[in-house]
Amino acid sequence: MAVIKNDKNGLWEVRTRYVDWTGEKKQKTKRGFERRSDAVEWERQFQLKAAKDVDMTFGDFVKTYIEDMKPRLRANTWSTKEAIINKKILPYFKNKKLSKITAPDIVAWQNEIMNMKDKRGRSYSKTYLKTIHNQLSAILNHAVNLYGLKVNFARKVGNMGKEEAKNIDFWTQPEYERFAEAIADKEESYMAFELLYWCGIRLGELLALTPADFDFEDSTLDINKSYQRLGGKDVITDPKTPKSKRTIYMPDFLRIEVKTYLSHIYGIGENDRIFLISKSFLHHEMDRGVEATGVKRIRIHDLRHSHVSLLINMGFTPLAIAERVGHEAVDITYRYAHLFPTVQTDMAKKLDQEREGFMNVTKS
Length: 364
Description:
Elements: E1 2-5, E2 12-19, E3 25-33, H1 36-50, H2 58-69, H3 75-93, H4 103-114, H5 126-147, H6 153-157, H7 173-182, H8 187-199, H9 203-207, E4 214-215, E5 220-223, E6 226-230, E7 233-237, E8 246-249, H10 252-263, H11 279-293, H12 302-313, H13 318-325, H14 330-334, H15 341-363
């Protein structure tokens, strides 16, 4: 190690040697320290990080965690994780040694987080609290599994929240048809909502669609990518999960609508995005249609729920529905089964009929 003072600017700098992951010896230089002690401490932490030593600070280990995990995740997934790490975790643990984080430290941190308020002055939901805790636990678990940390105290302490049952809203077909008629004066809006409702695709999948994704001979739609707006830039990624890559068969009326709509877009290329609109634009259009018709307000994503609910009510199996909408597991589809009250009433009627038939046979 060499810690020297730059005579020109009066600042300290470090030159240190280390062995990288390939076993090759390298040198690292870091300049701009106002105090020699700061340069020495930086060199010490750098060597610990290079050696993957759990005596490094939590903040330095997070840099290792980022190097390991960021390339494996979708851009929008990492963006969510990064925000939680920077705002909810690093401020509390950044300068603490990774190996010195204890169960009482975790409990104290949880208490701080649970007392926080959002921009509207409300406490965080239990689901969000659980998400925050899970991120800290994931970092410590990474240290346990790969870098020799003895124990993940976040796991031992347990979560500070739990996942809440999500309220699933949906439109029945008559509700959707009333809405669609109200916004049909804008062809782009109408076509976007038609694809969302009748194909059950996600918003990101819709906004990534290109003419090349449609096969009008076979009446199919190929879902192979997703659109995100990240850091002020348009980003095209893989779909949400591996099973999200799928081929959807369109009803014939929708095939005709899409083909006609594309013929109205002047100069569009096979690989150009069809819908150059934003999520906020669709929210505005949904508000417009709801106000005009009086149907209940649902989220954009609830159109996907509406599609699943419609298919359930039509009698299709959960497996077939899961394949169409790209659910990673069939049990996700089963969560929708309660959405149509008429299913329950139909069951009750059939049970009545079954018992009445049995009683008639017994009497005879």
